[in-house]
Design a protein that fits this description.
The chain contains three helices and 14 strands. The chain has helices at residues 2-20, 54-66, 218-235; strands at 24-29, 32-37, 39-40, 75-82, 85-92, 105-113, 118-121, 128-132, 139-147, 154-161, 166-173, 184-190, 193-200, 207-215.
Length: 236
């Protein structure tokens, strides 16, 4: 009877953990792997997919800037808890809220995510993008984003991550001359602040590739550990 009760509690707890406590994304590139912890930015993605509004993008940029994270002239990747669940945002240069008025060049991306994810994209009615959604397996976004030194930017996000969901990115430099050597910055919530966890650049061919997977956070591991310890003690 105790074993049945424990099994039932474990299944329910794992379901709760999977759906409510996904908050850490492990990223990997040619430099190695690192963890990105998420935090909330109120009001994101309360509209229908696929619309990542310009005002929402400006909000994210201003939030990061207020924490001392410079997003101008970079591709910024960060996990955020949103109305659409855990999301992984990709900010292409800094959007000041005025839309794509002037831009210098562009940057290409192909990104593949788990089939259950939602996708949000800025300027969905203007940008050159395609989302391939097969009846099974993963879905793939192919897009060209503007890169502007005069205040125009772009971006997209995968949302609704659960434990074990994966995502991959391949970026191609299409002549964005204002890119820095470390064009990519990965931002996470550490010590009650947004901070840059890692940086990366394009390789000699003008390509940058990285992947991500949602893993259990410390609170999830603690819950499972406590339950396992309690069951072990009952067996004695």
């Amino acid at each position: 009877m105790r074993k049945l009760l424990f099994t039932t509690l474990l299944i329910c707890s794992c379901s709760f953990v999977q759906n409510s406590m996904a908050s850490v994304i492990q990223m990997a590139n040619t430099d190695g792997s690192f963890l990105l912890n998420s935090n909330s930015i109120d009001g994101l993605f309360n509209s229908d997919t696929p619309y990542f509004t310009t005002s929402d993008m400006a909000l994210v940029h201003s939030t990061l800037n207020n924490w001392g994270v410079d997003t101008d002239g970079k591709v910024t990747i960060l996990p955020v808890n949103t109305d659409a669940g855990l999301a992984l945002l990709t900010l292409v240069d800094m959007e000041l809220g005025g839309g794509d008025i002037e831009f210098d060049s562009s940057i290409g991306v192909t990104s593949t995510g788990s089939s259950g994810l939602s996708m949000f994209i800025n300027d969905a009615d203007q940008d050159n993008w395609t989302l391939i959604q097969p009846p099974f397996g993963s879905q793939t976004l192919g897009a060209t984003f503007v890169w502007g030194s005069l205040g125009s930017g772009d971006g997209f996000a995968w949302a609704g991550f659960l434990m074990g969901d994966t995502v991959s990115y391949t970026f191609n430099d299409l002549g964005a001359d204002s890119l820095s050597e470390d064009a990519f910055q990965f931002v996470g919530w550490n010590n009650d602040a947004w901070e840059v966890v890692a940086t990366h650049g394009f390789d000699s061919s003008g390509t940058s590739v990285f992947t991500g997977i949602v893993i259990p956070g410390p609170s999830v591991v603690a819950i499972i550990g406590v339950m396992g310890f309690g069951y072990t003690r009952r067996r004695r």
